[in-house]
Specification:
Largest sheet of chain A: 7 strands, mixed
CATH architecture of chain A: 3-Layer(aba) Sandwich
Number of strands of chain A: 10
Strand order of the largest sheet of chain B: 1-7-6-5-4-3-2
Distance between the termini of chain B: 53 Å
Number of helices of chain B: 3
Number of strands of chain B: 7
Strand content of chain B: 35-45%
Oligomer: heterodimer
Structural class of chain B: alpha+beta
Low-confidence stretches of chain A: none
Strand content of chain A: 5-15%
Shape of chain B: elongated
Largest sheet of chain B: 7 strands, antiparallel
Number of helices of chain A: 12
Distance between the termini of chain A: 66 Å
Number of domains of chain A: 1
Number of domains of chain B: 1
Shape of chain A: globular
Chain lengths: ~290, ~160
């Protein structure tokens, strides 16, 4: 029989685990179209006047069937381009069309922001959540590069870096949906990202404790030197440009049993070409 | 926010009406419009539905609209069904024989947006107003060109 303090510890630990499980559980019906509609004005003001954002070719997203939208991840933990893309998606297709994004567990579990993200249709990153949303007919936005890519140094802003993660291709194949690449630039100029701090994260065992492979170091407002970016930062008003590429139909383009390596090379090459084009349009950092 | 712009057009109301009643013309004269697509079987008239998109700032804004008034040759009005809340109206009024005034009214709102919603309505107004003015200039140019073409056709027929 456990002693009283041990039992209390077990109860407390169970309570915390249950809270975390509930926070991370993704129900499609958590998405709240009215909440999104009411958030659009703030997003539009910020996107239009602060970030001078431009979202191109949203018509490439299939209008009448689900698709896996695959983006390059930028901006550290303040993922400005995701909010801009969500605004553009909602005004283009209407908030009535379901749309889900996958995000890191830490973002979803955050007390206030996590609730807002869930209402916006964001779910914690897992293949099950993506499968559920696709099966329900909703487009799903994923960032295969995750924390590895979003914390890359600012001078690698024009580089696609999924760190070899190919789970998104298996997901698209299982669900039988096309991959729609979404390429953005500018997010990596919202702060001066210096290093991923991968060695530091490993030394502190963050990969095991919190699924974090990085402990990024940046110069960001208002902190100055910013280690971890856990509390986020005030983004610089970098011009954000996002381009949606034509859908890649896996079975049509790669045969009935597509080779994952080949698809990965094709998707990342097309995204890199588009990103090179966007980078060539920019004359100055931040200003665009 | 309700915006109102108008222009005189050197053509009879019927010519303007014919031009506005044809959904294929909208991509030709409406400024900022990126999409104007017929939804359903009905191309025009009361109850016709269109999916429209207009670029305003960082976003293409629009949704499904339905024609709620269709009084030939004076008034066409539509309301949004899904997407951003708005309504619009064409008012065509004959002023002299062969000349009329076309009024374009556009009202939009950000329901539940609070102060940011009010700020957004105000901030978007100059862009929307500019698009309305360009739309009317293009409409006037195209309808007057159509009217000259019709008159030339009549002259040729009477020779």
């Amino acid at each position: 029989m456990p002693s009283a303090p041990t039992g209390l510890m077990a109860k407390a630990s169970g309570f915390v685990r249950e809270r975390a499980r509930r926070r991370l559980s993704a129900r499609l019906e958590d998405r709240d179209p009215d909440f999104i509609r009411e958030a659009l004005p703030v997003l539009w003001l910020l996107s239009t006047f602060y970030f001078r954002a431009e979202v191109r070719d949203l018509g490439n997203v299939p209008a009448d069937r689900p698709a896996l939208l695959v983006g390059n991840h930028s901006g550290g933990n303040v993922i400005v381009d995701t909010f801009i893309f969500s605004l553009a998606f909602s005004t283009y297709f209407g908030v009535e069309r379901p749309f889900h994004q996958l995000a890191h567990n830490l973002a979803i579990a955050w007390p206030l922001a996590g609730g807002m993200l869930r209402k916006s249709g964001t779910m914690s990153a897992s293949p099950e959540h993506a499968r559920d949303a696709l099966a329900a007919g909703a487009p799903v936005l994923v960032y295969p590069g995750g924390d590895w890519e979003t914390h890359r140094p600012s001078w690698e802003s024009d580089r696609i870096d999924f760190a070899g993660r190919k789970g998104f291709i298996r997901l698209a194949l299982e669900a039988g949906v096309p991959i729609v690449p979404v390429v953005s630039i500018g997010g990596q100029e919202t702060a001066l990202f210096l290093s991923r701090g991968a060695g530091l994260a490993k030394a502190l065992r963050l990969d095991r404790l919190a699924r974090l492979k990085v402990l990024p170091i940046s110069l960001a407002l208002p902190w100055g030197l910013n280690v971890g970016d856990f509390a986020g930062h005030v983004p610089l008003p970098a011009k954000i440009t996002i381009e949606v590429l034509p859908p890649i139909e896996l079975e049509r383009d790669f045969g009935p049993d597509p080779d994952v390596e080949e698809v990965y090379a094709h998707v990342t090459a097309r995204m890199q070409e588009a990103l090179d084009g966007l980078a060539a349009e920019r004359r100055f950092p931040v200003i665009g | 926010m309700r915006l109102n712009e108008s222009t005189p057009v050197a053509a009879p109301a019927e010519t303007v009406w014919r031009y506005l009643a044809d959904p294929e013309n909208y991509l030709r004269f409406m400024s900022g419009i990126t999409h104007w697509e017929v939804v359903g079987d009905r191309a025009n008239g009361l109850g016709a539905r269109y999916r429209i998109l207009v670029r305003v700032g960082a976003a293409e804004v629009g949704g499904l609209v339905e024609m709620v008034e269709w009084h030939e040759p004076f008034d066409i009005a539509w309301h949004s069904v899904t997407g951003v809340d708005h309504r619009g109206r064409w008012r065509i009024r004959e002023q002299h024989p062969g000349r009329c005034r076309v009024e374009y009214r556009f009202a939009y709102g950000v329901v539940g947006g609070g102060p940011a919603g009010v700020l957004t309505e105000l901030a978007a107004a100059p862009t929307v107003r500019g698009q309305m003015r360009r739309t009317l200039r293009q409409l006037k140019r195209q309808v007057e060109h159509e009217q000259r073409r019709l008159e030339a056709e009549r002259r040729r027929a009477s020779r």
